[in-house]
Specification:
Strand content: 5-15%
Number of helices: 35
CATH superfamily of the largest domain: Glycogen Phosphorylase B
Structural class: alpha/beta
Shape: globular
CATH architecture of the largest domain: 3-Layer(aba) Sandwich
Low-confidence stretches: none
Number of strands: 23
Bound molecules: N-acetyl-beta-D-glucopyranosylamine
Number of domains: 2
Length: 808
């Protein structure tokens, strides 16, 4: 691979002058942050040089461009990743060492922008990485939230949300593109006018804001392709600073106009727990859609003039979940109102250009907007949606038996709501789920009526992860070891990891892999000690559940297991299990009371257990605050057990399961989401599966014969005791008992079947941890997980999108 620096000496010289140019100081007097900042800016400017070359190449070759619209891009820190992708990591590391600085220390100073909630946002970032690696002209289009998602702190066991000021010291990767700013109008009234015998429409008296793009380079591994992620920020169109108000001392009022505009890009909303229906969120969605489409069409006009019928040949627009669902109507609006195409012609262009990924089957997570709110905020767009809906109904094949049901379930406008998922399906030529079982469920339950009407639209694209970030960069010790035995081709082609199977029975390799794991555990322990003054012991098993808190993900089941093991040990000092540290991390949506109480329960149990000498030899519980990409990269490599315990049928895919597998953790999980593909690839002997299957869950629900109280009565000694302890003060020292959790399980009849799966789960955990006593066998399974994880590289995922959806 060609590096961006010809030699270490060249790097040092460039770096020194960069520091001087930015800070007016020489290297020796620059602060660590100055040093980080200058290094990132130096790499960013190299990246932009390659980006310009990439752009020119794409323009010249007439390559199809792919635009990935996502309201979240959880990009993580970029410095280390871009050095790796540019093949400059070793050179820069040595150059810095010569100067007396440490690369890892500088990397730690980079802000980690929380521009996503979890899996969906991180997937978007992994797909960008892989698009650049595969040489696809692929661009991210999203939002630049000033504060991102909240920062999580734990106080008295509770989650407390604070603002994350990730932009406070500037962000070295971004370039503000004032020249590409777009005016976006909200509200107003639609005015029709006639021209050449046809009616056209425009919206007048709108409230306008300026959408200003910031471009962040996306460096592909190999350094040949640098794409970009464009994120939008909002500002007032014109300053309306109220000097009178200011002179009166009403400073907030004086600048209210600016504050209103900036509010649109201030924060990222949680994607779960009834956070829907907020006007500001609807504004965000329209803003990044309209601004993004406007950029796309500008580029197209420049390259292809107004040959609109060719748009689908040169442009693919992918909508990540329903948040960008307005792409369809917005593109229609421009083609009809501004470019003056006829409806049918425009519609054919739109549907050939758009595609849609669904990420959830949870009904409460499928977006809807009240028609009243929607039509007032976006009157012209609403008219277009109405027309799409009318034609859908009009064209409906009414000779089909049961067409009324099909029509009702596929309608875009229903019950006073705009249904964004239905809009997305109707406007797209492709609809995909994110793991095999998820796509099956879409086809046979959630979107079954669409599937009956247009089965060819549906396809599966099992998620993937960037193996470069989550293995090579996060786990450098393991990466070195792997490269030593199979060479470094796996960085480029993750399927090469399969060659590790040769070493699965090589004792010296297994031994070294185990040593690396041990070092990774010690690294996490150091982080916990330094950042959170929590001590954990690397000699215990690291059992890890890290993900968003949600009832269906069943962190509750995990903590019930821990309570049970604690109880059994207290009752019987001879009860022995393999010494384990139970590690949790993840945020709960601020308005999601149950999820927040689950966090408090975990911390309360941790408080009791960690202070109880009777059990400390065998167990400790640790909650890592503020889960985000950067600490995730420390957690995955240290994990030995990967807890993937959602109620079967509920987790669309999961991606932490893949990251943990790749880092050699053994999955303890249900047959849900991509766990199924993990078991298929690694073999049942390499993971530990328990619990009801999705079919069994379905059947149980249909029969209606499940009663939580039956579970309680059938196992008073263990499960019953755990339930009772929620309210008997055993764990109440941190802010009280857990009545609401008890009610959720007992009075609401345990919707997520925690009690049903409890027995088989604890049993599976005991069987799995018992095998830890045989390190050779454990290490073999661990390495086997890595060896069979290559298929989960997002490079594979993106090639499937490219070949089967985008045809780029
Ligand atoms: C999440 C699913 C995960 C999946 C990611 C990425 C949403 C709406 N969905 O199972 O819950 O892995 O998407 O596809 O965030």
């Amino acid at each position: 691979m060609e590096s961006i620096f010809n030699s270490k000496q060249e790097f040092i010289e460039c770096y020194r002058s960069q520091i001087m140019a930015i800070t007016g100081k020489d290297f020796e007097h620059a602060s660590d942050f100055d040093r980080f900042n200058a290094l990132a800016r130096l790499i960013a400017s190299r990246a932009r040089t390659v980006q310009t070359a990439t752009d020119n190449r794409v323009a010249k070759s007439g390559k199809k461009r792919v635009y990935y619209f996502s309201i979240e891009f959880l990009i993580g820190r970029l410095l280390d990743n871009y050095l790796l992708n540019f093949g400059a990591r070793d050179l820069v590391c040595q150059g810095l060492r010569d100067l007396g600085a440490d690369l890892d220390d500088l990397c730690d100073l980079e802000p980690d922008p929380a521009l996503g909630n979890g899996g969906l946002g991180r997937l978007a970032a992994c797909l960008l990485d892989s698009m650049a690696h595969e040489g696809i002209a692929g661009y991210g289009n999203g939002m630049r939230y000033r504060y991102g998602l909240f920062k999580q702190e734990i106080l008295d066991g509770r989650q407390v949300e604070t603002t994350d000021e990730w932009l406070a010291s500037g962000y070295p990767w971004e370039v503000r593109r004032q020249d590409k700013a777009v005016t976006i109008g909200f509200g107003g009234r639609v005015v029709g006018y006639e021209d050449g015998g046809r009616m056209y429409y425009r919206t007048e008296d709108t409230q306008d804001v300026l959408a200003v793009p910031y471009d962040i380079p996306v460096v592909g591994y190999g350094g040949k392709t640098v794409n970009k992620l464009r994120v939008w920020s909002t500002e007032p169109l014109e300053e309306h600073f109220d000097l009178d108000a200011f002179n009166r001392g009403s400073y907030a009022e004086a600048d209210a106009h600016r504050a209103d505009a900036e509010a649109i890009s201030a924060i990222l909303y949680p994607n779960d727990a009834g956070e829907h229906g907020r006007l500001l969120r609807l504004k965000q969605e329209y803003l990044f859609v309209a601004a993004g489409i406007s950029t796309i069409l500008d580029t197209f006009r420049l390259e292809h003039g107004r040959a609109w019928s060719e748009l689908p040949d040169f442009v693919a627009i992918h909508t990540n979940d329903t948040h960008p669902a307005m792409c369809g109507p917005e593109l229609m609006r421009i083609l009809i109102d501004e470019e003056r195409l006829g409806w049918d012609e425009a519609w054919s262009i739109v549907t050939k250009t758009l595609s849609y990924t669904n990420h959830t089957i949870l009904p409460e997570a499928l977006e809807t907007w009240s028609i009243g709110t929607f039509s007032k905020l976006l009157p012209r767009l609403y008219q277009i949606i109405e027309e799409i809906a009318r034609r859908w109904q009009d064209d409906f094949d009414k000779s089909r038996t049961g067409w009324q049901d099909l029509l009702r379930n596929t309608a875009i406008l229903w019950d006073g709501q705009v249904r964004m998922a239905n809009l997305s399906v109707i406007c797209s030529h492709s609809v995909n789920g994110v793991a095999k079982i998820h796509t099956d469920i879409l086809e046979h339950t959630v979107l079954k009526d669409f599937y009956a009407l247009m089965p060819d639209k549906f396809n599966n694209k099992t998620n993937g992860i960037s193996h470069r970030r989550f293995l090579a960069e996060s786990n450098p010790g393991y990466a070195r070891l792997i490269t030593e035995v199979i060479g470094d081709a796996w960085l480029d082609d993750a399927s090469q990891l399969a060659r590790l199977t040769e070493f699965e029975s090589d004792p010296s390799f297994l031994e070294r892999a185990a040593r690396v794991k041990r070092e990774n555990k010690a690294r996490l322990a150091r982080y916990m000690a330094a950042e959170h003054a929590i001590s954990i012991d690397p000699n215990t098993i690291f059992d890890v559940q890290v993900k968003r808190f949600h009832s269906y993900k069943r962190q509750l089941l995990n903590i019930f297991k821990i309570m049970d093991i604690y109880n059994r040990r207290i009752s019987d000092p001879n009860f022995a299990v393999a010494p384990t540290t139970f590690i949790f991390s993840g945020k709960a949506a601020s308005s999601y009371a149950f999820a927040k109480e689950t966090i408090r329960l975990i911390n309360s149990v941790a408080d009791v257990i960690n202070a109880d000498a009777r059990v400390n030899e065998i167990m400790r519980v640790c909650f890592i605050p503020d889960f985000r990409v950067s600490n995730a990269q420390l957690i995955y490599p240290a994990a030995e057990i990967s807890e993937q315990i959602s109620t079967a049928g509920m987790e669309a895919s999961g991606t932490s399961n893949m990251k943990l597998m790749m880092n050699g953790a053994i999955t303890l999980g249900t047959l849900d989401g991509a766990n199924i593909e993990i078991v298929n690839l690694a073999g049942a002997d390499s993971e530990m599966i328990f619990g009801l299957t999705a079919e069994e869950v379905e059947e149980l629900r249909e029969k209606g014969t499940y009663f939580a109280w039956d579970m309680y009565n059938a196992d008073r000694a263990r499960l019953g005791r755990v339930i009772d302890e929620l309210t008997d003060d055993t764990f109440s020292a941190l802010s009280g008992n857990f009545e609401s959790i008890r009610n959720e399980v007992m009075q609401s009849n345990d919707a997520n079947l925690v009690m049903k799966d409890f027995g088989s789960y604890v049993d599976a955990w005991e069987r799995l941890t018992a095998t830890y006593a045989d390190p050779m066998s454990w290490n073999r399974r661990s390495v086997h997980n890595t060896a069979t994880s290559g298929w989960f590289s997002s490079d594979r995922t993106i090639r499937e999108y490219r070949d089967e959806i985008w045809h780029a």
